[in-house]
Design a protein that fits this description.
The protein is of the alpha/beta class. It contains 4 helices and 10 strands; from the N terminus they run βαβαβββαβββββα. β9 and β10 form a beta hairpin. It is globular and about 35 Å long. The mean pLDDT is 93.
């Protein structure tokens, strides 16, 4: 299974669409900051399951009752999905990683910083921040899962998309 992870689209959906067309993901996760962009993509690609959470720029844009943290099982893997602003990820990842580990997550997916990051901790926890797929960057994350295990994660940038 291939999961496309998006964050911080901020009203710019062009790169996300190009990634969806090129990669043909099995699922999409949008980590907020313009939750509405995720809704538009859901309508444009109804055959692809979409999971999403709102970000700090969404508090006035969408339903305030939407959960800011989603603990989602996908293909036998537990994902801790959040935008990251409530965990103060621009300062440190300590609270985010603590909460992800406490719920038994295999991977923690977050945004907010606009800085792409993809790595595995010594205890096996995967960390993925896709950066910004919108006007602040041009990067997305790809998470590959098989048989209930994360095979790898990687960052795909605009320039990489041209080489696919």
């Amino acid at each position: 299974m291939k999961i496309l992870v998006l964050s911080d689209s901020h009203g710019s959906r062009g790169f996300a669409r190009r990634c969806i067309e090129a990669l043909e993901p099995d699922a999409i996760i949008h980590l907020g900051d313009y939750y509405d962009d995720g809704e538009v993509l859901r309508e444009e690609y109804p055959q692809i399951p979409m999971y999403q959470v709102p970000g700090n720029c969404d508090r006035y844009r969408c339903n305030p009752d939407l959960p800011e943290i989603l603990i989602q099982s996908v293909s036998g893997v537990t994902l801790y999905v959040t935008h990251g602003h409530r965990h103060r990820v621009k300062t440190h990842l300590g609270a985010l990683l603590r909460d992800a580990r406490a719920c038994g997550a295999d991977a923690v997916l977050y945004g907010h910083t606009h800085q792409a990051d993809c790595r595995q901790e010594p205890d096996g926890l995967w960390i993925l921040n896709p950066g910004s797929c919108g006007c602040y960057g041009g990067s997305v994350g790809i998470l590959r899962i098989r048989d209930g295990m994360i095979l790898d994660c990687r960052i795909l940038r605009e320039r990489d998309l041209r080489n696919l």
